[in-house]
Amino acid sequence: MNFPKIIPIFPLSNFIIFPKTTVPLNIFEQRYLDMVNDSMKASKYIGMIQPKTTKNNSNNGRPNLHKIGCLGKITSFKETEDGRYLIDLKGMIRFETNKEIISEKKYREFEVNFENYLHDLDNKKEELKFSDLELIFRDLKNLFEKRGFIINWKALEKQSLDETINALAIASPFSLEEKQILLEATNLNIRKTKIAEILSTYTYDQYNNNTLQ
């Protein structure tokens, strides 16, 4: 599959998408309305990437971005009466940014490279079972409930395992940096391990807080 070498970038903080997952987006800023308009006229591709949270995180007023993001394709488009765009974006393949393209456009564009992530396009299912994830699911449920997040767990369990893990990673109340770690995990098995490692820090903190009170 041929993907464009230069793509528009939507730098959304604390938000990631993975290949083979679909997320809804509510677009209302003019520059991103322009971006969606241009994308719809072309390939329908938009790159999702997270801005960094480190100090001195700007270059000419524009936030510095992580190197790894995910290319999404607009699969559904609706314009509201008040001028917003409601779109569904399907994750296709991760990418690494090479350089930013300077132009007159209000939104940002980057030259990107997909070479290290061609395996994202594979359709084979990873050899994991829900029984492998029972502990992770239990801890995730506790964390989601504690943070007031509502998840339809029965619906999730009807999906394929990779869709489930990636959907939970997207929706999780993890930090920007933690979500970036999950995005950059090479495969599903590593992502599962990383989720467990991140969860262990949350449960450890919860235990410490309880013992200190």
Could you give a quick summary of the protein structure above?
By secondary structure, the protein is of the alpha+beta class. It has helices spanning 30-41, 134-146, 153-156, 161-171, 176-184, 188-212; strands at residues 6-11, 22-27, 45-49, 68-79, 85-101, 108-113.
DSSP summary, beta strand count: 6
**What order do the strands of the largest sheet run in, or round the barrel if closed?**
1-3-4-5-6
Query: Which spans have pLDDT < 50 for at least 5 consecutive residues?
Result: 207-213
- Rg (C-alpha, Å): 18 Å
Q: What do we call the CATH topology of the largest domain?
A: Archaeosine Trna-guanine Transglycosylase, Chain: A, domain 4
- Largest beta-sheet details: 5 strands, mixed, barrel
The CATH homologous superfamily of the largest domain is named LON domain-like
Tally of helical runs: 6
Helical/strand content category: alpha+beta
How helix-rich are the residues, as a percent range?
25-40%
Count of individual domains: 2
CATH class of the largest domain: Mainly Beta
Mean pLDDT: 83
Q: Can you tell me the CATH architecture of the largest domain?
A: Roll
Question: What order do the helices and strands follow?
Answer: EEHEEEEHHHHH
Beta-strand content bin? 15-25%
* Inertia-based shape: globular
Q: State the separation between the terminal residues, measured CA to CA.
A: 56 Å
